[in-house]
What we know:
Elements: H1 4-26, H2 30-50, H3 58-103
Helix pairs in contact: 1-2, 1-3
Amino acid sequence: MLPMPAQLEIYEQMCALSTRMVEAARASDWEQLIDLERSVAGLRNTLVYESEGGTIDAFEAEKKRALIQQILRDDAEVRRHTEPWMEQVRSFLTGNVSNWQAGRPLGAGH
């Protein structure tokens, strides 16, 4: 079980990684973005499976809230950059499937 100070350290690591994810998204560095997202997911899983309940003081609660808010802002910024790219990929793949189906001889594949 992770005590709150250790949890805060994980939130700080997640926040730092989310900032790097924004930089990768802005640079269209999709491989780096994927690697960073995997790292964040690992930290998130640690929080989910290792966090202990209990009370936290006002300073810890405020710190945790601020970190989560920054992570959410970073996530929104990453999505702002990735969603247009994902739409292009979706259109490309849909177009290729349509073109493939249109070019397929009748009765092929049946």
